[in-house]
Amino acid sequence: MSLPPNVEPLPHTVSEAPFDPEAIYSYSPAQRQLFEASQLRLMWWKFKRHKPALISAVFLGILYLMILICEWLAPYNLHTRHPTNIYSPPQRVHIFHDGALRAPFVYGLDYKLNMETLKREYTPNPNKVQTIRWFCGGDKYEFWGLVASDFHIACPAKGGTLFLLGTDRLGRDVLSRIIYGARISLTIGLLGVAVSLVLGIVIGGLAGYYGGLFDTLSQRLIEVIQSIPSIPLWLALAAILPITWSPIVIYFGITVILGLLDWTGLARTVRSKLLALREEDYVSAAQVMGAGTGRIVFRHLIPGFASHLIATSTIAIPMMILGETTLSFLGLGLRPPITSWGVLLNEAQNINAVALYPWLLWPVLPVILVVLAYNFLGDGLRDAADPYK
Fold it and tell me: Per the domain annotation, does 82 fall within a domain?
């Protein structure tokens, strides 16, 4: 439609130049980096602001790296005995002798049996200066049970001793046994959580997605398991394990037991999440396109709250470690020659450990530190799971 001859057209106010957001909005480099960051990067930035969680993650990472080379870190072999140093107290590391600075060393111990109290008394002898050797050959061992070696990062002096945390009733170095025990206590938590994750996700996922009879039966089973006190149930299941089984089989048996008893809470969490998510539009779209149940549950629904599962797992791992420690402390968990922190505490459950040989209680310290670290890590992961808050 043309305009009348006496009417002027309105001026054109739309710019034909390409749209340039920089000309309209001015973003600082930090703002641009924030706007362009991915979900994982946002989670990492928020996780870094949670200092206790970050420190705990570094601490746990160092521990899990250490269990890979525990044979190198331990000054003695796991089973090495020192009959002349039974219940020897911890030796202090010194760097000054007679006012002069020197390489790290310990003083040798003089032993005497107190005939009145029948207590073994050890006295540091300043004349026995025993310099610690580094990157040296010491007790022989098989690295991960495969390669024979005698390499240690730190070794006692030739003909000397290096009991930084003392010795036990058989003269075995407590520090070396704690380092070896970390390999069992830390890995049993990971394996146990893996078992509980599989059971919790599968049973909880099917119950939440299908509902009906399967949901009713699974919920009643969970209620029955949760109604039984944990420790008596652990004791009953641990007592079923035959005493003739090898230590390795016992280790995996305890792992399966811990996993079978810890899946109930996770299954209920997964069920409640799926009950809410299965009504979403993207689930209906996947069903219309012909996606199967397994694909919908594991490719569409579970990733929707994967961050919550990660946080839950980090909190469940210390409970697994405490469960193994409890069973071993009560004598129904792992058995020698396998060594864990619970086995070490089992050897220190008499009054002498508190009154006369308190260094036998050192294994309780790594248990406390690991449990606290996992709880701080779980808090940090839970906060980082929603970086927009």
Answer: no
| Domain limits for position 225 | 176-384
For residue 132, what are the CA distances in angstroms to 72, 164, 216, 303? 15, 11, 64, 52
Torsion sign over Cα 278, 280, 282, 284 = positive
Read off the pTM. 0.80
What gap in Å lies between CA 190 and CA 64, rounded to an integer? Answer: 11
> Among the three residues 109, 135, 162, which one is the final residue of a domain in this structure?
162
Given 162, 187, 217, the domain boundary residue is 162
Structure tokens belonging to residue 93? 């590391």
Can you tell me the mean pLDDT for 38-56? 86
Beta strands in the chain, from DSSP E residues, in sequence order: 94-97, 100-114, 119-131, 133-143, 147-155
Give the list of residues 6+ apart from residue 24 with CB closer than 8 angstroms, or none: none
Q: State whether 137 and 284 are in the same domain.
A: no
- 8 A C-beta contact, residue 380 and residue 56: yes
Q: What is the pLDDT of residues 137-183, one digit of tens each?
A: 889 998 988 889 999 999 999 989 999 999 988 899 999 999 999 99
87: left (phi over 0), alpha (psi -120 to 50) or beta: left
135 and 187 fall within a common domain: no
The rounded distance, in Å, linking the Cα atoms of 158 and 138 is: 9
> 378 phi and psi, to 5 degrees?
-65, -40
Domain assignment present for 50: no
Q: Which pLDDT value is given to residue 68?
A: 92
* SS3 of 193-244: HHHHHHHHHHHHHHHHHHCHHHHHHHHHHHHHHHHCCHHHHHHHHHHHCCCC
Q: Please give the backbone phi and psi of residue 343, each rounded to the nearest 5 degrees, phi first.
A: -65, -40
Q: 129 pairs with which residues across the strands?
A: 107
Distance CA 382, CA 375 (A): 11
Q: Are residue 251 and residue 364 in the same domain, yes or no?
A: yes
Q: Identify residue 55 by its one-letter amino acid code.
A: I
Q: Using an 8 Å Cβ cutoff, are 94 and 105 in contact?
A: yes
Q: Residue 313, class by beta-carbon neighbours within 10 Å (0-12 exposed, 13-18 middle, 19+ buried)?
A: buried
User: Is residue 362 helix, strand or coil?
Assistant: coil
* DSSP code string of 174-200: HHHHHHHHHHHHHHHHHHHHHHHHHHH
